[in-house]
Amino acid sequence: MNSSEEDITQIIRFARKAGKIAIGRVATMETLKNRHGTLILLTRDASAKIEKEIRKFDARIDIVRLFEKESLGYILGRKEVSVCIILDGKFSERIKQLQSEND
To answer: pTM to 2 decimals?
Structure first.
């Protein structure tokens, strides 16, 4: 894990502690239906079906692909997580910035 990924990990943990993240496909879809959320985190090994489903609800929301299901799950205190949504714009902007530096 490089320094950008470590920084993103810390931001995700802060967002979780602050209650600014919805975890899992169902929670993500409900959040999108209610027009909340600022950034989707989708694991590299998530199915294309999940991304297609997300795009049905909101074609404009940014999606960042990072980590594997097990890694994101570990960060969030679960076994596996393939998708989650950030609910706070500041957390989202920082993750996008770090991800672009990583590319």
So the answer is: 0.91
